[in-house]
Structures are given as structure tokens and as C-alpha cells.
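ok, trying the design again with the full structure, not the truncated one.
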């Protein structure tokens, strides 16, 4: 039995690895020359960057499991930091070295940058959510949820809203409170290791997609880059993939491309019209990554630091990856920064860093990488298709498929594993 996986991002590579591990004959097709999708390596002036500054956490259990399976040195893949939410000179919350849930409760009650009454209010909010099982009777927006639980301005501005934007990549006044609560449940309110911050020591293609491809090929599978699939078509109980190289036939296909590409690939199948209709209703949010290469080293107070400005998070790439003098800033979700030229945005971010941390060394070069459709907009009541479809041999994988979670690397990986298991059950 032959299985095709279309898309070499984290979802597709997770599906391919899971199939290859089970001895299934799998062929993966990726349109780009580089694996990783929206979490991939980009080389600028000989330096390996990422097209998005992604943060992993300890709750990414499937991502970590598969990374351990395929990575040549899994114990060296991440810089691991205890939960330390540090918005420079504004707010800081550190998890205490206590068993859960005391580790978070103590961190909330001792947070710096918020008055005592706000800390008590935040602790009561988390206690109420825990008692409800982090479930709402009716979904609402994150802003409405925070207002209903009387969250103070400091916690709202420096913790809850930035966490919403970082995790859901959606403005709080439109973001799903239920999905936000799932993030709190599994990321903050679970055990201490779940809230650990993990920063990849290398580029995101080298972290998982590239070693995953080597793993698949070592077990007899194939990974074809630069191979564009234009349609997935049912063919007498099998599946035909149309491409410039001609049609090829498989017993099952896992469609693991972005949602806007998936709707185009699946449109030849009337049985999947409800899926394509749902995907066409998606709206998208951007992520901008701003890289500043300095002529001399400049170390941040921590490998990851929050800013109260246009840039939300700043990463010290020398501390994380050994890239001397390189800083990376991330701006999630929509905003006025989208109207700026790349040069103007890089200058504005540099000025923000200098106002916060002091004069920077001279700039050797900068690069702004704008993923304008980085994630779907995770809004209230959004209909998301499952990994199963009306056709028993066509499966979906991607961070957009139905789950408790927003569009994250972990949700992409979990969907790929789920789609692969569906294939294996059918075989």
C-alpha cells in the first residue's frame, strides 16, 4: 500500500515520520526546495535565519517526542528555561520551584509590576478557570472573558493580552476565549515542565523537518522537494495526484498544506465541498520577524525578553544559537507596522531596543521577514475541519484542523500524527 503526503511542513513531516516508523511506503511532496513550511530556514548573507521566531514550550509533547526520534542530538536541540514571563522593566512573573499548581499560584502572587489587588484577582481568575475545567458554557472573546473576571490593567496589558497574541496570533477583542483557556490549561496550569520555555538552538528546518526527511528516506520512503502537486483526485478507489511531472497514484493521501492551498487542491472532489467551503471562510493574521545583525556582540539580559512597544518579544540569537551579534524581534498579529516599509520597521524596532536597553553597536544589516498569512485567525466559533474527510482515503493535516489548540507547531504535529494513524488503521 502506497501513501502520499502533500506538504513538507511540520504537519506533513510528522505524518511521514509516523507512517515510515510503522513500515508504510510513504512519498512526501513539497513544492518548495526547503522543508519546514511556515517554520523553515531562510539564509540571509550566509546566516541561517527562521521565517518566524517560534517559541516552543514543555507542553509540546508530540513535537518533543518526534524530535527525540529523528534528531541526531535531541538533548542539544533546545535551550530550556523555566517559565519566566519578563516584559523588560514593566512586568515579571516567574514560576516558583514548587509542585503544580502551587508553582503558578506563587508566581502570580509574587509577580512584579502589578499591585497586590491585581495579583489576587489574577490568582482568583486562574482558580475559577481550574474549577471549571478550563471550559466555557459559551465561547466569547478573550477581552470579554478578562473583563468578566475583573482582570486589572497591569496583568491584562503585560500578561493576558500578550499571551493571547503570542499563542493565538489574534487580537484579544476577536480571539476565542475557549482556545485561550486551552493554552492556559496545558501551558501554564499543568505541571512545571509543561510551562518551560524551549528555544531551538538551530534553525527550524534543521530542528525537525530535515532530520525527519532523513529518517523517512532511511526507511525506504521518498521526500521530493520542488515538486508541485496541483490537484488530488479520486481514481477508482485510489487517489491520483496531478503535477507537472504527470499523474501518480496512491492508496491514501494526506493533504498537509496550508488551508488556502488545501482548498485549491481539494476542489476537484465534490464530496469535500463542505471542507473547502469552511477553509475559504478562514481569515489570516501575519507574523513579522525583524533580524538585526550588529557589527559587535550585544547581549540581552535574558535569551528571550519582552518589550512594551511595537516589537513584542526579543531573542538573543547569540545566546540561543551562537550567532554573534544577531538579535531577532517578533511582531505577532495585525497592526500599524504593516503599513511601514521594511527599512522603516527595522529602524523603529532598533530604536525601541535602544530606548529599553541602551545604545546598540552599529548595524551591519537587517532583514524583515513578513509571513502575511502566518496563521488562521482564531476567532469565536470558528468552524475547523477534522483530519478525517468524507473520503476514507483522503486525510487532512495542519495546524488549522479541529483541536483545542490554536495554530501552533504542536497542533500541526499532532494533526500529522492523527492523520497518519487514520491511514494505518485503514491499511
Amino acid at each position: 500500500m502506497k501513501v502520499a503526503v502533500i506538504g513538507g511542513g511540520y504537519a506533513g513531516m510528522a505524518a511521514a515520520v509516523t507512517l515510515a516508523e510503522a513500515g508504510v511506503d510513504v512519498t512526501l511532496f513539497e513544492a518548495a526546495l526547503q522543508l519546514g513550511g511556515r517554520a523553515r530556514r531562510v539564509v540571509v548573507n550566509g546566516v541561517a535565519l527562521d521565517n518566524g521566531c517560534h517559541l516552543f514550550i514543555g507542553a509540546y509533547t508530540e513535537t518533543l517526542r518526534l524530535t527525540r526520534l529523528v534528531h541526531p542530538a535531541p538533548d542539544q536541540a533546545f535551550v530550556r528555561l523555566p517559565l519566566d514571563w519578563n516584559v523588560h522593566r514593566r512586568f515579571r512573573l516567574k514560576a516558583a520551584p514548587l509542585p503544580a499548581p502551587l508553582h503558578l499560584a506563587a508566581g502570580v502572587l509574587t509577580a512584579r509590576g502589578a499591585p497586590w489587588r491585581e495579583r489576587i484577582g489574577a490568582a482568583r481568575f486562574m482558580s475559577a478557570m481550574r474549577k471549571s475545567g478550563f471550559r466555557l458554557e459559551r465561547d466569547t472573546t478573550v477581552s470579554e472573558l478578562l473583563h468578566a473576571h475583573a482582570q486589572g490593567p497591569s496583568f491584562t496589558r503585560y500578561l493576558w493580552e500578550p499571551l493571547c497574541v503570542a499563542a493565538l496570533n489574534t487580537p484579544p477583542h476577536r480571539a476565542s476565549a475557549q482556545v485561550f483557556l486551552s493554552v492556559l490549561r496545558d501551558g501554564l496550569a499543568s505541571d512545571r515542565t509543561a510551562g518551560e520555555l524551549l528555544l531551538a538552538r538551530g534553525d527550524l528546518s534543521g530542528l525537525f523537518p530535515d532530520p525527519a526527511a532523513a529518517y523517512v528516506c532511511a526507511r525506504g520512503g521518498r521526500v521530493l522537494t520542488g515538486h508541485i502537486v496541483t490537484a488530488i483526485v479520486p481514481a477508482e478507489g485510489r487517489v491520483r495526484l496531478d503535477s507537472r511531472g504527470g499523474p501518480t497514484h496512491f492508496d491514501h493521501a494526506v493533504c498537509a498544506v496550508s488551508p488556502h492551498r488545501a482548498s485549491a487542491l481539494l476542489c476537484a472532489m465534490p464530496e469535500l465541498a463542505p471542507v473547502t467551503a469552511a477553509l475559504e471562510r478562514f481569515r489570516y493574521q501575519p507574523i513579522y520577524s525583524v533580524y538585526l545583525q550588529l557589527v559587535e556582540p550585544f547581549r540581552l539580559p535574558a535569551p528571550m525578553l519582552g518589550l512594551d512597544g511595537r516589537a513584542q518579544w526579543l531573542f538573543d540569537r547569540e545566546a540561543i544559537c551562537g550567532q554573534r551579534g544577531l538579535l531577532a524581534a517578533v511582531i505577532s498579529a495585525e497592526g500599524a507596522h504593516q503599513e511601514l516599509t521594511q527599512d522603516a520597521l527595522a529602524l523603529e524596532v532598533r530604536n525601541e531596543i535602544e530606548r529599553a536597553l541602551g545604545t546598540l553597536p552599529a548595524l551591519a544589516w537587517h532583514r524583515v521577514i513578513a509571513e502575511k498569512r502566518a496563521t488562521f485567525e482564531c476567532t469565536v466559533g470558528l468552524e475547523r475541519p477534522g483530519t478525517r474527510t468524507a473520503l476514507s482515503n483522503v486525510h487532512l493535516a495542519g495546524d488549522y484542523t479541529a483541536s483545542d489548540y490554536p495554530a501552533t507547531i504542536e497542533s500541526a504535529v499532532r494533526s500529522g500524527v492523527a492523520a497518519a494513524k487514520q491511514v494505518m488503521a485503514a491499511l
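Keeping the full-length input from now on. The chain has a mean pLDDT of 96.
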